[in-house]
Design brief:
By secondary structure, this protein is of the alpha/beta class. The chain has eight helices and five strands, in the order βαβαααβαβααβα. The protein has a five-stranded parallel sheet with strand order 2-3-1-4-5, with helices on both faces. Helix 1 (15-26) crosses helix 8. It is globular and about 40 Å long. The two termini are 12 Å apart. Keywords: Kinase, Nucleotide-binding, Transferase. Belongs to the adenylate kinase family.
């Protein structure tokens, strides 16, 4: 069975950056749930049509999201998997646990909104992502507080987790991530 790490936190908190470091430094296979969904949308699949809601900054239904996630994390070729930006809702978390089984660890990134917005606006200059607009970012923050914040409470009460202070430099945050992950390997 794969070692599965979930990474959640507000938009712009460093989830993707630290996921990339898990890939390059600890041999994890990285799946951004958002990217898996964008790939389905770009491919024009039936599933992608159902996922187009994310282009409005909204969260896709859990059952549809699980269709994307399950085919990747259950692949026996992957020994270590990091899911970036997951779970986003309690419903997703419960559905994941029922379909795949509990993750080995959830990393919860904490960074204040002002810093996250600054980071996202900087990223928007070069990302090419259709959801990197200030208007969409505001919706994403609203969705985060309405949907993901309660998920974090669920994780804290039901799963193994570590809070990561994402305000430092990339390397400072990496040291926190590395220590937390090494404890479950």
């Amino acid at each position: 069975m794969s070692v599965v790490i979930h990474i959640t936190g507000n938009p712009g908190s460093g989830k993707g950056t630290q996921s990339e470091l898990l890939i390059s430094r600890m041999n994890f296979n990285h799946f951004s749930v958002g990217q898996l969904m964008r790939d389905e949308i770009n491919a024009g699949t039936e599933l992608g049509k159902q996922l187009e809601i994310i282009n409005q900054g909204k969260i896709a239904p859990a059952d549809i999201t699980m269709q994307c996630v399950k085919k990747h994390v259950t692949n026996p070729a992957y020994k270590r998997v990091v899911l970036d930006g997951f779970p986003r809702t309690v419903e997703q978390c419960v559905a994941y646990n029922e379909i795949v089984g509990p993750a080995h660890l959830t990393l919860i990134f904490e960074v204040d909104d002002k810093e996250c917005m600054r980071r996202l606006l900087e990223r928007s200059k070069s990302s090419g992502r259709s959801d990197d607009t200030e208007e969409t970012m505001k919706v994403r923050f609203q969705q985060y507080y309405e949907k993901t914040a309660p998920t974090i409470e669920y994780v804290k009460n039901n799963m193994k987790y570590v809070i990561i202070d994402g305000r430092g430099t990339v390397e400072q945050v990496w040291e926190l991530v590395k220590k937390a992950v090494e404890d479950v390997l």
